[in-house]
Amino acid sequence: MKVVNFLAIILVISLMTLVGCKDDEKGTLTLNLSGLEDLGSDYAYEGWIIVNGSAKSAGIFNVDANGNLDQNQFELDLDDLSAASAYVLTIEPSPDSDPGPSSVHILAGDFSGNSASVTVDHGSALGNDFSASTGSYILATPTDGGSNTNENSGVWWLDPTGPSASLNLPTLPNGWMYEGWAVVDGVPVSTGRFTSVSGADNAAPYSGTAGGPPFPGEDLLMNAPSGLTFPTDLSGGAVVISVEPSPDNSPNPFLLKPLVGQVPANAMDHTSYTMSNNASATNPTGTVQR
Question: Which of 1, 135, 215, 273 matches a 20 to 30 Å C-alpha distance to 19?
Answer without folding.
Answer: 1
